[in-house]
Write a structure and sequence with these properties.
three-stranded antiparallel sheet, four-stranded parallel sheet, 2 domains, alpha/beta, 7 strands, 156 residues
Length: 156
């Protein structure tokens, strides 16, 4: 049984990383990282390296990688669609900012941490233990889900 792929992205693919996290994929961004360290981390953590660098893509060393050609994050996601699976249970399970798995939190615990309208209209919340961000299924969630449904052909 194979597990979901994990990704290591070059630092010019931050928006793509957010889309991958929205899909529930473990997606790290390497900030100013050398080719040697990119390969080392990718190998150690069994990550597929996504890069816009032709130098990295053409490296003679053997490691899983994919050259991303587009500058548009939406097109970038299309380029790697064959590596991905749309799973309703996994979407929006990771922090879009820092990649950590989100944890459910009781509504009363976040009463003073979200706008009052959000507290009054939402019932389900999650938070990131690393950066403290709180997430709920508001309009931003719905907009992102529509885009994901469109690219993966789901009717949402």
């Amino acid at each position: 049984m194979s597990s979901k792929p994990k990704f290591l992205l070059s630092d010019n693919l931050n928006k793509l990383a957010k889309w991958l996290r929205a899909l529930g994929y473990d997606s790290l961004v390497g900030q100013s990282i050398s080719l040697h360290n990119l390969r080392r981390i990718g190998y150690r953590d069994r990550r597929i390296i996504l890069t816009r660098s032709r130098k990295v893509a053409r490296s003679p060393h053997h490691f899983p990688r994919r050259l991303i050609r587009s500058e548009d994050s939406w097109q970038q996601l299309q380029e790697i669609k064959d590596l991905l699976e749309y799973d309703e249970k996994s979407i929006f399970s990771r922090c879009l900012e820092c990649n950590r798995v989100l944890v459910p939190i009781e509504k009363e615990q976040i009463k003073n941490l979200v706008p009052s309208f959000v507290f009054q209209t939402q019932n389900s919340f999650s938070y990131c233990k690393k950066c403290g961000k709180i997430f709920w299924k508001g309009s931003h969630y719905k907009d992102m889900k529509k885009k994901l449904d469109k690219i993966f052909g789901n009717r949402g």
